[in-house]
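Final report, closing paragraph on structural work. Over the funding period we assembled a curated collection of sequence-structure pairs, and we close with a single example.
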Amino acid sequence: MTHPAASRTYSEQQAGSLQTGDRLLLPDGDRSAEILRVDVETDDFGTPAMVLATLTGGGVLRIAAGSSVRIPAPEPVAGTAGTAESASGPSDVDVPPAQLGEHLPEVDGRAAAAPAVVVPPLPATAPAASGPSDADLALIPAPAGSPESVVEAVAEAHPGAVSVLLLSDRLAKGINTKSGSCLKDLSDLAHELFIVLKDAENALAVADLLNVLPFDGNPGRWASVEASLALSSYICRQLGQEERAAVYERFLRAPDAMETDRFKARINAKVRQRSLNEPNLYDKEIFRSIDNSNPDAERDWRLLRLEALLFLRAHGGSETISALELDRRIGIELESVRS
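Its predicted structure, as stored:
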């Protein structure tokens, strides 16, 4: 006997492209249901990880963001190629929550939704590196010598700064831009120079060793470049170098435009805007440190908050925090960590 599903044709669709009103094949392989709402959950790095499809009849399907789901093709009209009843295959019905969660464990008193029938995605490939343009690079001063000599000059300018000496000693052994730890040291050195030592000139000189690096598809390495670009943008705006600041901000946003799949790009944009609108500014951690009379911990958390605020400012603010308000908050945090 032919399984009902075998008599129906399907198309595959990426989970991230699902929209309200779409129908998809349910886990039992016999029925499909219409989607009422689509939500996206991200991992701790802000990357789309799970698509939550709420069905019109109730219940939620959890689908890996990179997977594909089976979408039933429109049914043939009765009297063309067989009757609609014989060609219907899986029944298109709104599935009550009880049926969707049947034989599944309960979570908080509700039936847990099963994963949808998925087809494994093709192996992911890293996005191509996107370097800065010659016109943009012309606005960024070239380093005075090798990267190592730039760091050495900074160390000589601040012989009494222990943190600068520790970072410069590690970097003096050789700067490898493929090393995540090396990029992190450079970013930390630039932040130390500006935030603690108020040395904007040398902070920019060190940061520019990172700022000209293209995004290579590695989010771990890019995090240090991103922090450096956000810092440089803020410094230049404080110095009245608006055009140069705008270049850093364009570099910062470059990875956002690298996704060629329009559905993934749409999801990424939605997730990105949500992260800008709802940033983690470490309020609980800072208040806890204050309550525990732990100034060192409070300063560390405030430095993380400052980095988050600089990132938001480089994006021009968000739908919830304006650029003007961010400037005010950044000033407060700088005063706090410098005291």
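The chain has two domains: 4-119, 134-338. The radius of gyration is 26 Å. We thank the funder for supporting this effort.
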